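Page 47, continued from p. 46.
Same chain as before, 306 aa.
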Amino acid sequence: MSRPRRQNINKYGVIFCIPFILFFVLFNLVPMIFSVVISFTNWDGMTMDFIGIQNYQRLLQDANFWKSIQNSFVLLVLISTPLTMIFCLLLTYFVSFKLKRLARPVQVISLIPYFTSTIAVGAIFSFLFNKNIGIVNSVLVNLGILESPTIEWLGDPMMARVIVILINQWTYVGYTSIFFITGMASISDEIIEAAVIDGAKEFRIFWSICLPMMKKITYFVILTSVIGAFQQLEQEFMMFTGGIFGSNYPVGGPDASCLTMGLNFYSTSFISLQYGYGASIGMANAVIIGVSSVILNAVMKRSDNA
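Result:
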């Protein structure tokens, strides 16, 4: 009696898997294969010519390609991601030890930026820091700090980078802290009470006891944050594509100071309509993200075993 039942279960399992398999093949696997194919062509959406590895040879001489890698790695991975970790750990500490009664409202408020559309976030910050109609310049003028709204925040390479970092903190600190706050809730109160009895201060408990117990959460957050940093696109796209709130900034900002890997891929493919070359950029970006993830995962595993 049990054998037919197992066969029925297996049959229904296969049936329920079919929709996922179809969607995966149609919307993931086929586009990936197509991207690999067109990366060896010169395609503008109308005519397609096979050119071999010329697109990849062009990558090696493309200043924007290397600039985008540099910006994504330095600006988003080495600077923005550690700052996000620092701020989210501070928020976790205060919510877990200092603001226990306000923990739920603080978590909800801190999550609002993350659930706000990234397109809207980029547009809002573009408006806030606009030279002519931006609120930031208007506030500084009203406070007497400036005589006239002369600071062109997004037109200066250094200030543009600072604003991109600021956007990342505003957007991702609350979301990232949720993982650590959840991890704190899983730690037994007896462990914390024992540390208090031994005379340990709250921050010492958090740093020396709680964080080591949340090592896997830390690894997960770091890995996903680095992958997300390499893929970032929307905020920079809204601020530095020209025409936003009367601005006329080039793609990627002044001197390509905020040109990320994702934005470089998008602008090449869908603004310049160089689909073949854009596909080669996408393939190169995928390799960079994959290799970086493997290296980072290996480093974290080695530190875990040390």
